[in-house]
Design brief:
heterodimer, A: MetI-like fold, 21 helices, flat, B: 360 residues, alpha+beta, OB fold (Dihydrolipoamide Acetyltransferase, E2P), 6-stranded mixed β-sheet, 20 strands, binds adenosine-5'-triphosphate, binds magnesium ion
Amino acid sequence: MKKELESLFIYSLVLALVSKIAIGLGLGKWAIKKFDLTPWMIEGLPWLFIALMAVCVYLLSRAGMNSKGTAQKGYSGYIIGWAIAALLCFVLWDFSDAFADLDIEFEFGESSLLLRFANYVGHGLLLLVTGLFAFGNILGLQTAAIFAIFTAAVVVIAQTREEDEPAGKIEKIIAQNIVAKIAAVPMIMTALGVFVGCTIWTIFYSFTKSGLLPKANFVGLDQYERLWDTSRWIISIKNLAIYGVCSMILSLLIGFILAALLDQKIRFENTFRTILLYPFALSFIVTGLVWQWILNPEFGIQKIVRDLGFESFTFDPLYNPDIVIFGILIAGLWQGTGLIMCLMLAGLRGIDEDIWKAARVDGIPMWKTYLKIVIPMMRPVFITTLVLIASGIVRVYDLVVAQTNGGPGISSEVPAKYVYDYMFGAQNLGQGFAASTVMLLAVLVIIIPWAYLEFGGRRQND
Amino acid sequence: MSDVSVSVKNLDLNFGSVEVLKDLNLDIHHGEFLVLLGPSGCGKSTLLNCLAGLLDVSGGQIHISGKNVTWSEPKDRGIGMVFQSYALYPQMTVRGNLEFGLKNQKLPKDEIEKRVARAADILQIQELLNRKPAALSGGQRQRVAIGRALVRDVDVFLFDEPLSNLDAKLRSELRVELKRLHNQLANTMIYVTHDQIEALTLADRIAIMRGGYIQQLADPMTVYNKPSNLFVAGFIGSPAMSMIDGEIQNGGTSFSFKGHSVTLSGYEANGEVHDGKAILGVRPEHVSIESTAQAGKTLEATLDIIEPLGSNTLLWFNVDGVIISALVPSELSYKSGQTYHLGLDISKASLFDAASEQRL
Ligand SMILES: Nc1ncnc2c1ncn2[C@@H]1O[C@H](COP(=O)(O)OP(=O)(O)OP(=O)(O)O)[C@@H](O)[C@H]1O
Ligand SMILES: [Mg+2]
């Protein structure tokens, strides 16, 4: 009985939080409109779960009525902690609202920093007090209620657990490894909020016809249809494919060969490594500008070779729509290969020297040792570099902007630039979101099977 | 000279400006089990790598089976090598590990199969042939590594601390197996270790190295009983030999220290023993506890510490500040703080010149 109640409590807690967040994101309003619901059906959901929590706590206290209740001393600390958290949460929520509502310059004028800060605090406190009495802030109130009930649950559990009874679910969650859990909370919040939250938000609004600002006016798949009808998007995808395949293969190849050369215990290794890694320290913008000059027919390689006497020599990739993407590729490789080389070098160094000796005694030629023994052993390094290169490919943007700005015409456009231009340039958020959702999907299509092979497969092996 | 399998002549090896091996000479007979023993960093692995051809020598020559192989590739030297870290190819099965080198030599298929089967049979790893190294225990991995040397069908095996990564029990098991393997194959084996038990049990001859020089090259019993210098005496034997600083007096007939004196009658000297500063080394098992004092034979000593070792007990005595240890059967009981009469078996002791540290 107790066990089920505790489970129910935890599920209600999770559901209360989830529904609260979902409503906060605006899903509630959308659902009301879409399914013709009365507002309280949605807005009441968190309250329903909060009430369920309260009932669980009440029943838990009833169930434990007869136990002697060896209140664990440490629990008072937790109780105080959770109570403070409840209060803080309420205050902060009000604060944030207060800040959001403030027009600082208007309210306070050009006052000193300290004075301004004092004003914030005062303003916040004022809002807190009014909020407390007016029950004005639903979200803050809900959060505070959740914390308060949680505190009550802690009290009840502390009061009703027998000495020899095993710890229940709630106790396990709140009391065991509490320091580690508290330490992990900010990171988990950030991860969930930033990665999952923002991703969902983006996908959500890609089904709307948001323009300058996100608005929840749904148009189904219209944005996607438009996207695939746009020749600029098609060219972007083609360019990305060419750039991606070439950059992947060449970065790995050149990076590995350079690393293998550096690994031959040569002199001045540090110098070479620094030189080769140096481009990586430059931003893509600088790289792009540098290579824009180098590839410029009037000043760069073409000019130099022609000056040497080869009059008909032409090398102007940035001005030829058919090969412009290769001009960008060169700059990308120049910038990124150093890092790949360093990673590969670290991988090579991680290989037991005895393996090399054993292969030499076995009479395996050097190239075969690399191919059949060393490279398979460096699998983790290759995976890391692959992920790095792939993420670099999908994001490629600044290089294009600096070198060609998509030109000549639209022949060197890339998806990331498309997204950026639509979101901020064309003030068509919906279209930008649709494009980025497609990019996300493309990445997932690659990553999920790989992750499945890498992690799912291994579990069965070992 | 046809009896010599591996011959090292005036070998020098430098790493940059660091001289690791200096003018080293060594002849190893056919079918001999030679152990290179020495403290860490003395150049054992370096010497082995030179023999294998994994390091380019700075001077001197190496002959294997009568051929000058100083500048040959490792694969052409007729050697197989086993490493401390096993150095198996992790992504290949055991069979793949054994076959890889042979396939590369383009040997016919049935020949490869025959050799792999033979090695697997000798080392009893038939059931493991289709497993990956990751799925093997340390002892099994080392067996596979030995197998990889075995299939090469060579005259000389080189081992670089093959048992150091194993736990004590496995190590003693594999030690016995190595001995059996050597008896069965009758190959020349050169074995690097810093474990003196391994050296004493396995070796036909032990080469004790220090700082790039061979200090003594002899069979285990000679090394143990007649160490050629102070370093060897201290390095070999556990519990270690007790060293007594003193002086030889009375025309080489007695050794005295701190006012005590023992006669040297019964000591087999290398040459004539002259008076002067010297060091007397006595192994704990050659120290006995006598019931009565005998002038020139026994020493008055206070028992400091008692260390039970199981079958024996190690007693640490103090003779006016000089520490002497004795190994006695554990049935006998002694009390620390009491005074006993120690008898030293001079015929089995070692005497070293204090200046040159060489055996007298
Ligand atoms: N590649 C190298 N460069 C410079 N010095 C080296 C190199 N390899 C070994 N040395 C030096 O040569 C000496 C002998 O090394 P070696 O590896 O032969 O010792 P070892 O007797 O095998 O010791 P261990 O028992 O620790 O394996 C050491 O002092 C070591 O510092
Ligand atoms: Mg070594």
